[in-house]
Specification:
Elements lengths: L2 H21 L10 H10 L7 H10 L1 H8 L1 H16 L3 H14 L4 H14 L2 H19 L11 E2 L3 H10 L3 E8 L5 E7 L5 E7 L1 H9 L4
Helix pairs in contact: 5-6, 6-7, 7-8
InterPro entries: DUF4919 (IPR032578)
Protein name: DUF4919 domain-containing protein
Pfam families: DUF4919 (PF16266)
Length: 217
């Protein structure tokens, strides 16, 4: 084997691991704002933050505008990850979930997937990290109030959060409407797993703030 061929083999051997590492890594937004700072903290394992403020900071960040432009890509990644989970392609699941979080780090579904997947493959450190972020985000919504009226509605910043919570509690959506009697809310009439009909309210002022920022409302 010539020296040139040997050098090429050594170079390729070094490049491929680096490519793999980049695929597994969440890109921290480069903006000098609160959202970017929060993402950097969380990825470093500093999970004791104000998650409600973190979620609100996403709407205020320039990353929110970039994420809106990648909405279709984000949905494609979500569909992809479901297929990878079904096929137990755990390395691909992790890569896809992190690609989702690079776009929108407040996505609760992606953090839940990482928590579950790292637990399956025996990575207790990352499983613990994403467990804390997953439930930090979730509790910043449902721990604020009971969601039974518009005045005690659960505060959301994106529609995905509404459907994630309904799925989490095993509720099947029957009808969605808007309630403005005491704020700005989505009113969700649902069937529960025990066969009861209930109504949950989500406070949506931040969603419309986001729409205005994008010039949609």
């Amino acid at each position: 084997m010539t020296k040139i061929a040997l050098l090429l083999i050594m170079l390729i051997a070094r490049i491929f691991p680096l490519l793999g590492q980049s695929m597994d890594k969440i890109s921290i937004p480069k903006f000098n704002d609160k959202y970017s700072s929060y993402v950097k903290q969380l990825e470093a394992g500093q999970t004791s933050i104000d998650y409600l403020d973190f979620r609100y900071s996403f709407i205020e960040s320039e990353q929110f505008i970039l994420a809106s432009k990648k909405f279709k890509d984000h949905n494609k990644l979500r569909n992809q990850i479901i297929s990878e989970m079904t096929n137990k392609e755990y390395n691909n699941v992790i890569r896809t979930a992190k690609a989702m979080l690079t776009i929108n780090y407040t996505n609760i579904f992606a953090h839940k997937v990482l928590r579950q997947t790292y637990k399956i493959i025996g990575d207790s450190v990352n499983a613990s990290k994403y467990y804390k972020i997953h439930f930090g985000l979730l509790n910043s919504i449902i721990k604020n109030d009971d969601g039974k009226t518009c005045s005690t509605a659960w505060p959301v910043i994106q529609l995905d959060e509404e459907y994630f919570i309904l799925q989490m509690i095993g509720a099947k959506l029957l009808q969605q409407s808007t309630d403005t009697t005491d704020g700005l809310c989505d009113k969700m009439d649902v069937d529960t797993e025990d066969g009861e009909k209930r109504t949950y309210f989500f406070e949506t002022s931040k969603i419309f703030e986001g729409y205005r920022k994008l010039g949609m409302k």
